[in-house]
Amino acid sequence: MIITLTQESANGVPKKLSQWVHSVAEITKPDTVAWCDGSEEEFSSLVEGMSSAGTLIKLNERTYPNCYLHRSDPNDVARSEEATFICSQDKDDAGPTNNWMAPDEAHAKLRQLLEGCMLRRTMYVIPYLLGPVNSPYSQVGVELTDSPYVAASMEIMTKVGHAALEHLRNDEFVKGLHSMGTLDPRSKYICHFPDEKLIMSLNSNYGGNALLSKKCHSLRLASVMARDEGWLAEHMLIIGIEAPDGTLTYVTGAFPSASGKTNLTMLKPPDYMKRWNVWAVSDDIAWIHPDTDGVFRAINPESGFFAVAPNTSLKTNPRIMEMVKSNTIFTNVALSSDQTPWWEGMGEHPRKLWDWQGRVWTAGKSPGSAAHPNSRFTTSIRQYPSLSPEYDNPNGVPISAIIFGGRRSELVPLVYESFSWEHGVLIGAMLRVETTAAASGEVGVLRNDPMAMKPFCGYNIADYFNHWLSFSSKRQKVPRIFQINPFRLGPDGRFLWPGYSHNLVVLKWIVERCRGRAEAIETPIGYVPTPASLKVDGMNIPETTVSELLRVDNAAWLDELESTMLFFESLGEKLPKTLQRELERLIDRLGSDTHN
Ligand code: GTP
Ligand code: SPV
Ligand code: MN
Fold first, then answer.
1. What does the alpha-carbon distance between residue 519 and residue 307 come to, in Å, rounded to a whole number?
2. Is the pTM for the entire model greater than 0.70?
3. Mean pLDDT over residues 320-337, rounded?
4. Probe ligand 1: pick from 265, 308, 487, max atoms within 8 Å of CB?
5. Does residue 34 carry a pLDDT above 80?
6. Which atom of ligand 2 is nearest to the CA of 438?
7. Closest Cα partner for 227 from 471, 396, 451?
């Protein structure tokens, strides 16, 4: 239940927190201050309030019980990288891949916009815990927001209320202040103050800009803490892969936004691999700490999914379809006349359909897609049928492999393994992939997105590479590093690899490499599977397609490395020498290889 701040409810709340809440309320001037406890009653009252206000549409209670549709402002549908700032004291700490604003300037600018921005609104106080209860790796944040959509979403995405306040007794907390403001895109700011552990986000109500626990806290601020404290905060999925003999291999995967993390996490084995399974730990973020034995242990800071809807279907991902059938908030999907959600790639479209902006939509006639390409669903991780029993383990899961990936219609083979940790760090650092609809801007343009962290690293990316290199096989049991690419296109413009559930074939090869069992060919770029080692009985794919998917084109790689060199040059003096040396070695290997 939402309770207005009284002396009683403030009991048990550290003074530091209540003082901050009061000081913000004095500036933003909400009608009411409501402390959220994360209960079901509270969630119901939030969604009922939005339904009466018309900002949420209740879906068909019979087919989609407790599900809702939210339509956002048409100009507020994706992350806004151009409005995202790192406000470190020193500009160089933000580095060449981030926007920077001086902290004083940012405070002054935002202070003006905050004045009275919550007039006639409720300010929700959302204490949230990231990570398992009683884990040394977990963290607390508090988000203040005037958006009931954000409050309800936070209750799905994090552990709100008691668990957070308990953890807060002996820990610091990250402060997040969010206001929808006027949603004026010209005054949109998502500002991060690493020195103050503070986030301020104004004039957007979109997930990645407004759910401050997610990219702002768990990645941008956490990456700075991770650098200072010797761990990693990464844009990575975490899964446990179960082999037929019952052994579990945990791997993480860093792929840029809208590039397959959720789908790999929720993979249902194809019929020909029924004795394998994939257990989900995280679909978007991993906090990885080397333990005292040097083992990399990963936790999921989040408790829910905020994931891409289009192209999810019973064919591509039945486990997701099952999961989103109840207790889910959909954002910017299309709606049929029987109040069920619909999106492109789900299957045949219903006869009558409203698009994501609520306009009647007719296939072949209406412009654009019915669902927004970045339409999403928000669902609790507890709803997921193949959730790893280790999801809540306070010590995390031990990681054997790290996979880098992303959309590359050419060049990058289906899968290969690095020669060493340092070579693997180079593979991550030179990740160059096609942009997607998850961020505003053009789609399908190649850009450097090192470790899938270009939009999320809260400090200088060259220092970040150095931080990765500070882990080494001499001191830690570092995971093996792989790159995958299920997005290679054939001459007809179609995907060469069927992807989705079939990606388990690739995961199987990775697991078997970790267990010293799978064969590989040494190529200049790394270890590539022999076609035989990738073959799984029952998978129907022509041998010629497999050879094409595994082909390494030396000349094309040399071209690619030209652009890597330019990217590395743009990072200036701080670029680690080790990385430069690894790049030169790769160029030498490609130049002296006569096979291709
Ligand atoms: P964020 O939530 O933005 O970080 O994205 P993500 O990396 O979790 O991406 P997600 O799994 O949601 O996939 C994004 C889009 O790619 C969806 O439309 C998927 O259906 C599609 N997709 C995922 N895996 C595959 C695959 O193996 N092959 C193909 N062709 N498409 C895929
Ligand atoms: C991404 O863009 O990588 C996402 C969605 O996971 S958001 O939380 O909006 O950033
Ligand atoms: Mn993401």
1. 35
2. yes
3. 98
4. 308
5. yes
6. 2
7. 471
